[in-house]
Specification:
The protein starts with 11 loop residues before the first helix and ends with a helix. It has four helices and no strands. It has one domain: Up-down Bundle (de novo design (two linked rop proteins)), CATH 1.20.1440.60. By secondary structure, it is mainly α.
Length: about 120
């Protein structure tokens, strides 16, 4: 039925990943134009990759496949955190912004890890 949501949309971790992606897009829109093909592009791709991998994994036919995509999503979160650490170090974001993003990333990592553990 077309009115029914895909299974991944019901997952809180997917919803949280989508919210984080929106934050990433909003935070990076004010980055310097010269970073368009550097930090901005990379951090947006990494952030979007989290939600995309959760969705793709949820659509797979086995728990093993789903877990593999969740591990990839966690890897992308590490990329996001690294890029925001660099952003802090070169003064593109404030320490408060960094702390807020870092906390959101770490919370999502813990939730993804809990699901990985549950799927074992």
């Amino acid at each position: 039925m077309l009115d029914e949501k895909p299974n991944y949309e019901k997952l809180e971790i997917w919803q949280e990943a989508m919210a984080l992606t929106k934050i990433i897009y909003l935070k990076t829109k004010d980055y310097p134009k010269e970073e368009k093909f550097g930090i901005i592009e990379q951090i947006r791709r990494a952030g979007l990759s989290v939600a995309l991998n959760i969705a793709e994994g949820a659509g797979r036919s086995s728990k093993t496949d789903f877990r593999r995509f969740l591990f990839i999503a966690k890897g992308s979160l590490n990329e996001v955190l690294t890029l925001f650490t660099l952003s802090l170090e070169i003064s593109l974001i404030s320490p408060k912004e960094y702390d807020d993003i870092r906390n959101a990333v770490l919370r999502l990592m813990r939730r993804i890890q809990a699901l990985i553990t549950k799927l074992q």
